[in-house]
Write a structure and sequence with these properties.
This protein is α/β, with parallel strands linked by helices and 174 residues long. The strands form 2 sheets. Strands 4-3-2-5-6-7 form a 6-stranded mixed beta sheet. Strands 1-9-8 form a 3-stranded antiparallel beta sheet. It is globular, with a radius of gyration of 16 Å. The two termini are 16 Å apart. The model has no long low-confidence stretch (mean pLDDT 96). Bound molecules: guanosine-5'-monophosphate (5GP) and magnesium ion. Magnesium ion binds next to loops.
Length: 174
């Protein structure tokens, strides 16, 4: 296995806990208590954030997962690649997409369009971390945990070649 320097902590476990509570409070304020909400966690990076966040929500939450990525083909907007499909039908439903980090914004923009094409009543985006400096479109998440600088980070679900997802804090890779 390749060695990476992951000694620099960017976000501590205490900051992450606070972030999850803050984001959940915003979401709880925007939906009715016990309203049905389809939460779509984006694999694999958002598996921990999805588990933490949903345990703070008051709605009638229905959790599902999807694995998607985007690649830049002939169109500059990119193409959405679905590696694992949803099991729930989103038609007529309120949907909250939970992502680990937003970078260029391509993946979330494409996924939001897809969910509306499938008939979702509303689609909101929630990301644990956001790197707005890297955006190539006008995508804005409805709920953002923490804005971070343009650094490659790992931990709290985020990986480098499959490693480091299990770190309890978020670290910069040098
Ligand atoms: P984008 O917003 O560019 O379409 O893609 C976001 C995806 O890129 C995230 O879901 C994540 O998989 C990956 N990504 C972006 N920035 C980072 C980072 O700093 N660390 C890790 N581990 N993944 C990142
Ligand atoms: Mg990802």
């Amino acid at each position: 296995m390749e060695y990476h320097d992951t000694s620099e902590v960017l976000i501590t476990t205490d900051q992450i806990e606070q972030m999850v509570e803050d984001v959940a409070a915003q979401i709880n304020a925007d939906y009715m208590p016990y309203q049905e909400l389809i939460v779509i966690g984006i694999l694999t990076g958002a598996y921990i954030f999805t588990a933490d966040l949903t345990r703070h929500l008051n709605m009638a939450v229905n959790v599902d997962f999807m694995q998607v990525s985007s690649y830049v083909g002939t169109e500059s907007t990119g193409v959405l690649k679905i590696r694992k499909e949803l099991t729930v039908d989103v038609a007529g439903k309120d949907v909250l997409v939970v992502e680990d980090i937003i970078d260029t914004g391509r993946t979330m923009a494409l996924l939001k369009d897809l969910l509306y094409e499938r008939g979702a009543k509303s689609v909101k985006l929630c990301a644990a971390f956001d790197k707005p400096d890297r955006r190539v479109n006008d995508l804005k998440a409805d709920y953002v945990g923490l804005v971070i600088p343009d650094e490659f980070v790992v931990g709290y679900g985020l990986d480098l070649d499959g490693q480091y997802r299990n770190f309890r804090d978020v670290r910069i890779v040098r």
